[in-house]
Fold each of these.
Amino acid sequence: MAFNRLQTMRDNIEAIRMAFSLGVKGRGAQTAEEIAVLRKYAGFGGLKCILNDANELADAAKWSKSDIELFAPTVELRRLIHDYSRDDKEFNRYMESLKASTLTAFYTDSRIVDAISDALKYQGVEIKSFLEPSAGQGAFIDSFLRNDRYPGAEVMAYEKDLLTGKILSALHPSILTRIEGFEKIESDFNGYFDVAASNVPFGDFAVADPAYAVSKEIGYRQASKSLHNYFFLKGLDQVREGGLIAFITSQGVMNAASPFIRMELVKKSDLVAALRLPNNTFSDNAGTDVGSDLIILQKHTGKKALSADEEFFIQSVVDRGTKVPGNKFFQAFPQNVICTDAKVGTDQYGKPAIVYHHGGGIDGIAGDLRKALDKSLHLRLNLELYNSNGIKPPTPDPVTPTPTPTPKHEAKAETPKVEKKSSLPNTPLMQQYQEMKKKHPDAVLLFRVGDFYEIFGKDAVIASEILGITLTRRQTGIDSRIELAGFPHHALDTYLPKLVRAGKRVAICEQLEDPKLTKTPKHKVVETVTPNQPPKVEPKPEPKPEPEPAPKPTPAPIEPTKAEPSKEIETDGSPDYTDNPDPRLYAYNLFGELEPIGKPRRQPKPAEDAPKPKPSVEVKDIPVKKFRPLSEKELEFYGSLNWEDNPPINGFYETMMSIAHRQLEEMRLEREAAEAAKQVATNGETIQEGDTTIQRTEGDFIPGRQPRVATQKPGPVTVDMSPRPFSEDIQFFHHNGSMVVQDGLVGFLSEVRKSGATFNPLELKPEQAKRAMLYVTLSETYQQLYNYEAETHEPSEHLREHLNQYYDEFVEKYGNLNEKQNVKFILMDANGRDALALERGENGRFVKSDIFDHPVSFAINEVTSVDTPMEALSASLNKYGEVNLEYMSGLVDMNKDSLVDNLEGHIFYNPLVENYEIKDRFIAGNVVAKANDVRAWIEREEERIKGFPGYDGVEPFIALSKDSLKALEEARPRRIEFDELDFNFGERWIPTGIYSAYMSYLFHTDVKIAYSSSMDEYSAEASRKNMTIWEEFCVRGYYRTYDGMNLLKHALHNTVPDIKKSAGKDDNGNDIKVPDNEAIQLANTKIDEIRNGFSEWLEAQSPEFKEKLVDLYNDKFNCFVRPQYDGSHQIFPDLNMKLLGDRYGIHSIYQSQMDCIWMLKQNGGGVCDHEVGTGKTLIMCIAAHEMKRLGLAHKPMIIGLKANVAEIAMTYQSAYPNARILFADEKSFKADNRVAFFNQIKNNDYDCVIMSHDQFGKIPQSPEMQQQILQAELDTVEENLEVLKQQGHDVSRGMLKGLIKRKENLTAKIATIQYQMDQNRDAVVDFKQMGIDHIFVDESHQFKNLMFNTRHDRVAGLGNSEGSQRALNLLYAIRTIQERTGKDLGATFLSGTTISNSLTELYLLFKYLRPNELERQEIRCFDAWAAIFAKKTTDFEFNVTNHIVAKERFRYFIKVPELAAFYNEITDYRTAEDVGVDRPMKNEILHNIPPTPQQEAFIEKLMKFAESGDATILGRAPLSETEEKAKMLIATDYARKMALDMRMIDPNAEDDPNNKASHCAKMIAEYYRKYDAQRGTQFVFSDLGTYKPGEWNVYSEIKRKLIEDYGIPAHEIRFIQECKTERSRKAVIEAMNSGNVRVLFGSTTMLGTGVNAQQRCVAVHHLDTPWRPSDLQQRDGRAVRAGNEIAKLYADNKVDVIIYAVEKSLDSYKFNLLHCKATFIDQLKSGALGARTIDEGAMDEKNGMNFSEYMAILSGNTDLLEKAKLEKRIAALESERKAHNKGISDSKFRLQTISHDIANNEAAISRMKEDAARYAAVVQRDKEGNPVNNLTIDTCNLRDEQNMGIHLQGLALKTDTHGQYKRIGEVYGFPISIISERNLVDGKETVQNRFVVEGNYKYKFNNGFIAMSDTHAACMNFVNALEKIPGIIVQYEERTAKLKADVPQLEAIVAKQWGKEDELKQLKSDLAALDRKITAALAPKQEEQDGEENKQVNTVEAPTQANDTKKSMVAEPTNPYQREPLSSRIIIGGCGATSPREFRAAGPKL
């Protein structure tokens, strides 16, 4: 049966209604009808339309044609859910759940599930516990448990969807249902279940299971990123050993290229079955065709090897021809593919796949599946492993064998019912339980059944509440049920203490036999634990042969064959620690190790009269191992071990130590007993009677006197050691595991909450207790001190004194905290690591941390005296944050007036704050707003004192303020006028009223536009839509219509609708939707018309309007002033220039460095954008130290590249030898040392902390800050989906999946962060706690990949919006600092390439450093920034199949000067020339190389490939659908490789003496010889063909040529890739500087940064051109930098940079593009950019080249490039004209239709007026004006209303006119007719009759139906119809008036001419002229002319830049082979400098 969407929707709604109803009633489904309704629920997997708006009828207009039938049910669904929701929050949760389920909820047909469950049952699989991790409505549960095939089986089901979970709960009220994700299952259930079966959800969403995300196993980490893989590994974890998982899943599990998931699966389980299901498996139930697999695995963790089947299972394969992925298992076992036919097609994502189909439908699939399953299970299922629970029978102990007979294991024996938790009361097991319960009625009885402790009845209720475990109920008879709870046996140690702490007495009943080996497992109580009672004391053994009889029987060890009574141990809540080795009988001591509580005691021998146990309970005591006595040497050695100062080193030593101590204790007791006996023999005897001790003494016995009673010695004091509530307040440093003191006892805390905690005493020896108490006091004092000072920023000398006192006392008594004997003890405390950091190592000894001397969480340095007013000013800013003249005069010994005079020009009076401000703060920022405020203050004050001079002495301040105002006005930026501005439609700063006015003008109706800043969304509505909206600005797609209002919203957001059309039907009859590119282009044209018309409309506005708009722009954007920072006054007191000079040759500080340092000090950070080699490292070190010295930063941090960070630390140490620097070397961040290192940062007051980028990434960030940032990103995901829907997007499955995937990934990331923090909360210091308050980020461009959200998901070149973790960590840290200070910045970025490729990178820079300022500019996201500063271009091109394809990118940037000003306000930009660095000049040489014959031939192939898309031309397999989309990227990549060397494409190609490698080798050799005497060195760069050992690569090829052809020694040529360690890398760099290595090869990433090997470099060779200008700059910077001595002395202070370019390749074009882009980036930074608009070009590394430009360049004819551009533009314009004409044609048709309707309406009105007049003339009315009925009926002779009415009713019921009008009478002369119509009702044909009154038209009342219950109303029907005529006339007149109003607009639309006709004609003319030029150029010419032409080519001048301020600066060169003037130092030729007037041809000859 085909999938019926409407019926499925109705079934779902009814099921949801039923579930809600049952929920209200508080019960599950009981009747068959209720169950049937619920089981029809099929989920919303194929019904994504439910996400569309359906709140009111008007929303139906937004629905597509294919979905409109589901509109009404969707409205009903939403209302139903809303009515049953408690509030909007719950309603939203339901809708969120529904939204996610549309992607993953595809339910399995019951026949498929039955095949699986029946096959397992047939093989003998018995199930006692069943898990369904993704239950849906419970199809798997119903199937597996139907017909009560597994009675009493325990079932747990998970369902994440809230609604589905409700239905599941209603259908299965007796099972445990969890309505949450499977990842929430508790770890206690690991290894619990027999079988897990499900149809697991499909999707590559991340799962919020942090334990998997941070696992060491790669398989688990990968599984956390994909839902279906996760379910497999998680499911395996939940089943027991031998248990089964049977999951239906997507083909992605077996087809995925990565094998790690499958490897992990078969490593811990056996493959039982793998079956591929046909694509139509889910067609009937879910309406989707999707490939899926059934995989069954059996858990087997102890396996030793993989089977052949499992080896196949691991391997995925891809068919070379079809590119279809698959699995080798199915190649080996094709019979495991269930299908009747197969063909190559695509999957649901459009990727190549084999589509399997089964012609037998579901029944056929289920039948074949069952057969295949039977075979697979028979072959591979290990039933013995399953039935044994994976436990092998215990092996007898060879020392103490147990001869207990074991019943034979019966083959295939069914599990006895006595083990089942729901067993009836009369089973043997329950009888045993009842007997045990009678013995211990007041105890909670833990009853061991198999691997679990079960709890029954009231005990179960109590335990479930205390332990938080699941409580279930099981049937124990027809009318009775019993409560049941339980937990795995290995969890006893976790749960037992909780029961005891809750005050419960616990009896543990162990199972004595393997349940698999006996029918009735026997049990006994082996232990009872009672809280708050002292242990029952056993009598001390006497040295006599026979012990005194004890008052109570004492359990004792027995021989294994003898029986023994139950052992009962009463304790005080802690177990009694005797010699029994059971781990429950040992406690963790203070050192974290197990030890007995009391002294070891020998157990007495068993009593001979011990009662024998009952036959039904066999006693089996826990065996006690017998150890041989140790020798004297062993006793001496192992007895010397102790935990205090000589702990055991491993488990063996620990065991021997315990044996030795036990033997020594026994020896001691024997000695004491012997001495006591001897004393008795000497002094007398004692007689013990009860509690009285009678001592026999010498002397006379006096009758009648009481015997002397020995003085009673006080007995041992019993101390209550039971857990109890913690009596003190919970402090911030209290955690689970914190060591505390209470009631004189040391213990630890558990169950810590805000309101309280549980105190768990530790039984310690007296000396241990003293040490622990002193430590706790010390630790808590430290915590209080640090927290107080961090919070208040005030020192606490009182607490510090105590801290020193306690520390000194501890060290004096017990040694340093970090000494070996203390470390383990301290680490027992949750805060122990903090305490250990109170010491640090110096010179081999431990010393106190700085916190003992002064605060480390804030700065306390107090400046008392300075030498200059400028230093006084800095000190004032440090202490008060403002100019404090009184404080400054005290520092510098000057009065205030003298200070002001001395600081003139440096400080200004600001009346707004009534104080002076520093110039760099006052004349900075938004000076326009500041000047306006100062001016208003002056005017107000002058007006106030007018007529009262000298009234309050304000005149001097007014004068000062006027001076300040003058300075502000002089600093104001030049006003930008209207004509200079570019306006984007949709800029957020422009008031929405302006947009509303423009759109009202454009649409000829009132339009209102609103903007929501929180969602960054515009909304628009029109009061009345008209033809302009419906016709002129309307695009009609196949599925829906996009009118002008829809397109307006897209225009405001600068997006384009994703319009779809049908490309046919699939196998199920559903539409195949594909993009309608023509409709998209038409929509884009109309959107452009809206956007572009905005500027024209603004031009037409009044001068006043323009002035106001310009003022608004200038005040908001053109208001920033960057102060001219002059740092020349700085003296840097601590700087050691001598050491810098000795080590680095630095003898002075550049002025540029001082200025930058001063800027950083004044702003609190910024951007140091200095070119490579200009001294950024020293800026960083000095600025950090100065900030620390002046208190501007308390604890600065520097992070740099791994290769540079050691050099940074050495530079800092050289500059400041006395500085305290913490440098993180590699050892510091090893796992063992990392925590200690973090604590060192936290507890010490370092001048600077220095580490690498990678190390910084390992610092835990504040979880609160991480969650805050990620949650903000998560919120925008939902907002973007909502905006897309409101814009009228057809929310495709792919779009929805992308957003939900992003949401799930962010959710998982948040959960992982929280998990990691929770795991390490007590042990790890996060960034916030370290006190770092400023970060210097060296090479900050490494962090540019920051996440951002955008709706422009189809725009190329924006990068990865999800960003990198490295960048995210930095954002966390900077936000932490900014949150603390409340200001922007907080960090300093240092890089020579802050903008490496595109201006979009500026937004991310601002996001890091200026969040508050962006907020002020109304910029809250990337889209808002792009709306102001970027223009998006959409190029429509024809692809190889001649279809139009849209390509979008942000190519143009506008308002560039204001963007530059915003950047420069916090930036110090300097080039090497600005700084005056003594470095060589760059001499660029473009070395042209003619293509080789091989390359020529391949270029032809490339051109054919680009035209046809046929990849076989290139000798490779055909392109897949995915590759087709990236065709030009593939073509570009091939062209790059071809230009480098043909062997990059074909390893078998031959070498050519004229290829690039040969040219490069020749040039290298020439430079080598030329500078041989000076041992000059050279760099060779290439990112392609890098060195790989054992493979051909261009590096090795050039080296071979250099050695063989030019005789250069091999050891002088090195590859940077050979350096695998930092040490070897440094050695190569040193060898380059010394001249031992002469040629160094490398890539941009490995050689472009961090290499200072410039001392001898004379040339740099670029074999290829990188993608980004910054990369080229970094490459050149290896040689063009200070310290290049050879170039300076012997090469005219120049370094030759040779760029190798093969003609007819992309080399030259790419270089020129890069050169132009670098130029405008430099101009932007320097503020020297004349143009207000920049064009970035259209080529990048992710998209490759434009097709037409690619073809032109490869052809080698530059005219063809221009021709290609012209043809592309002409094609786009012609397509646009075609769309325009189509729109005009549609409008003409619409005009004709309206004109026709108007004419028809007017004629109808005229004729209806005639009827109205005729009726008015004859109608008779009563006194009230009501018409009198004048009805006559032809077939009725009676004239009274009653009879006529009855007659009419009879006619209505019985007449059949067969569709013809038949007269029956008249009224007022108007004939009355009846007509019969046929209808189908419930499948039966019926006849219904209508009555009409005939005039010029036929008039009806009540739609022609007469009243069947009222004869009067039936007769009045016809008069009423005539009475309606005037009203009908009015309606027609109104309708006609509206149509007439639309006519002028339609006429204007029809008359509208296409505005680009002239442009098109001109382009065609230009194209014709260019064709003639090309034809002429291709004609044969004489040789002389050829030579003449060649001369002309070399002298072409570069185009000059136009002066037009709006003209774009184009980065894309018009001629890729043009040469720039020689002034730019690009020279064609060989090595060395050339004469300015000469050009040398490139080539092998010079």
Note: The chain is about 45% helix and 15% strand.
Amino acid sequence: MNTETLHFKFLKVFCCVLLLQLGWSHALGAVTEANQTRQIQGVITDSQGETLPGVNVLVKGTSIGAISDIDGKFTLQVPSPKSVLIISYIGYETYEVIVGNKTSFNIVLEDQMNTLDEVVVVAYGSQKKQTVTGAVSMMKSSELVAAPVANVTNALVGKLPGVVTQQPGGRPGEDAATILIRGKSTFNDASPLIIIDGVEQESFSQLDANEIESLSVLKDASSTAVYGIRGANGVILITTKRGKEGKPKISVTANWGLQRPTQIPEFLGSYEHLVLRKKAWENDGKDPLQQDNGLLTDESLEGFRLGEDPYRYPDVNWYDEMVNKRGALQQQYNINISGGTKAVKYFISLGYLNQGGMFKYTDLQKDYNPQVYYRRFNFRSNIDLNINKYQTLSANISGRSGEMNGFKGASGSYFQGLIAKEPWRHPIYNPDGSIAAVQGSGNPLTSIAYSGYENSKTNYYDIVGTLHNDLSFITNGLSFDMSISFNNNFGSTKKYTDGIDTYYYEPNTGRYDQLGEDSPFRFSEDKKTDPMRRTNLQLKVGYGRSFGKHNINSILVYNQQKTTSGSSIPSALMGYAARVEYGFADKYLGEVSLGYNGSENFAKGHRFGFFPSGSLGYVISEEAFMEKVKKVIPYLKVRGSVGLVGNDKSKDRFLYMGEFTGQGIYAGGGTPSFGFGTTNPSTNGGIYEKRNENKLLTWETALKGNIGLEARLFSNDLLSFTVDVFKEHRKDILLQGRSTPQIIGLSSPYLNVGEVKNWGYEFELSHRHHIGKVDYYIRGNYSFARNEVINYDDPAGTPDYQKIAGFRIDQFRGYQVLGFFQNAEDIKSSPDQTTLGGPIIPGDLKYWDRNGDGSLTDADKVAIGYSRIPEIMYSITPGIIWKGLEISVQFQGAAHASVLFAGNAGYEFGGGAGGGQVSEVHKNYWTPDNPNAAYPSLHMAAKHSNKNINSFHLKSADYIRLKNVQITYSFPSKIYRKLGMTGLKAYLNGSNLYTWSKIDNFDPETVNNSGEVYPQQSVYNFGVNINF
């Protein structure tokens, strides 16, 4: 037998043995698995801890399954520990888990943010997300309350592409973010239109986030054209929560937080301060020993250096002494109940907020409370009543009452005073315990504790009633809604005054000189704020019908609104809107919107405007040729829109009219009169024309275009993204003419002369997957918007580089710095800068002589840096979920923005003789041995060339911020059910935790050139949410 035959026989025997082995193993495994079949049970809840009934639970690869009951419970027989459960529910992410050795499961389903059937709230209605053809971004309630904030506008920061937010201050009650949509395209008010439950409102900043069901941002013309002249700056639509049929559900949320300033300015102590002050006097060509009353002698400086006598040589860190850096408490509570029957559904919410202030010395007097705080009560009751088969009545009743307290200047000017207060000026207290002061420089303590305070109360009440009529008895899909609303707000400010004795202490003689005088604490004024009343009537006819693969939805709306503020003439708006949507097989989509609105700002014949828009969408993934790649690209849509929207906002009313003003006796006092028969009528008084009329004035318009792409890749929406590119051409912007010759003697009338182009792009990306039993996600967005002024009615003869046209809106203008003067020869051979203030010495800033005339003047100012509003906003949020534990981190940033560091925030000694502090950067000033210094030569002169607006003092306001860190734990049902709950969640949260920027001492988002701002706050929060 040859070797080849032997090998062949061996191979046959091996194969037979292998087949027998595989067959035996399979049979043994089947018997083993059969023996391992067992019962498991579990509870399924959503991310808010509420149980989910009707959830499908299926053993993968089999027909074995179950459905959760009304309490979210399920029981199931599984064949093996290797079995995989697939948990699926409409509107939630599908969840898979290996059974293993567990017999009990607590499963939390996350909202499926990318569900194609998700409903998006749009103007005057809602649409399926798949069929939306405009640029719309939306936040759900769960996202708004995820990171608790005192002011709901701050919940938007970094969350939505195309939304530019800036928080200008952190004072309790005044910490709302300013919001722009896709940057700024007008010189007038660029804030978006706010619509709450279909009614225009001034703001949504003081709403309780627990009341909100969804928030939609409408960005392109297709989305906003139906609002006509009010929609040019974008629209924010807020829908509040409503009850659903079922047993009552109670949700209780409590938050306890600690607020601390994100940035505390650090300044030099007295000794270092005075050493720099001495150098500054020398640079000004003055003898330091002859300045500041002998403060800069060697003996005096040595005393400050040793710091042994705090009364003769004080060294007070005023910021640290007056501000409690340990923080202030913040509390927030909400309880709401919802439910209903087929006849009546309800949602009722009560909320309370208490934000404390961060100042010391607020408890020195009994029955006297100058501490800064803000308290707010919120109430909402949304009721839906089914009158009969065809009619439903909805009533929304809501209100809020706010109380803001604090001493005068607490919003900002007090902080400017702290920055301006030198550490050596005087101590806080004198040796005898009296309050210290010097002539012309008060003690910051008295501003807090002994100067009185103000207490303001505001009340807002809103009522919205809507009668919905189902007219399907006429034809299927027809409806008619009538909505009437009434909004009212009013308030008052009570002012209290006080005073205290202050003394100047002369350490050499021990003499006390009284400066301030005690006055009794008393009530001084109760000033009523102008009440605002607004009524709105809205009529809407709707028609929606499907014919096979054809879907049609349309609306026709009439709207009129009247607003009365104080004793002013009531303002009115009225208009019509229409929209028609068409879709074929949810694949080919089209929409046409029309707005026809009027405004009081224009004369008859120009009062009404017509604003059309159109959009198309194409769901490519629904095509047959995409079936082969359906597992890779389950969803792909392109869309585009173009349309015309308008704006009538300006600082004045009745813009087309001329303006007359009265001049009383003695230039403004007394009773206005014409003064006929006098030799000096201008002094006696009269009425004169201030501004010409322009009855041809009309609305400013914006032609907007948008192209978008939406995609979801791989199964379970593993990766999804949205990209939008937009362009806007704003024309006929409402301005008072700048080219009108002054010889006319009147202010220019309002004209349609401004023109701006704005363009940009934005994208949103999300990825979600799991590694073993740990789910993870990453969400991010990026927005860019840049404008360019085309026309600003620049006067004839203005050089191109000094025109507003050709640059960005609100871009800074000043002198371009070329570097430091290095020596006297350098100064001599350069253009003359003494015109801007001298003396000019080596180390001073060297400016560009833009017009080349050899002398620096205003004619040499050019555009520098960016504007205060960032062109770029971005955010990235990674997170993990394991069992009931979720950890997320949000990084948020801004770029292409500038901030001017002048005055007390930037210049040495505050920019003027006799006031202001210095910081570490000022120590690194120019000398011949330090030619690459961080700061120019020091000067005491208030008017000096260095202390002009220039590119050196204009700093980058770019930043990256650790915006939010949150740890959330949803307790297992076996714990909370014993307590009679349906859900229990606890969370730790920190916001505004750390900021990376090129700015020292101040927060780049809130700082201004004077430092006159209440610092933005970091908040460390613990909260619980309980559901019954």
Note: The two ends are 85 Å apart (CA to CA).
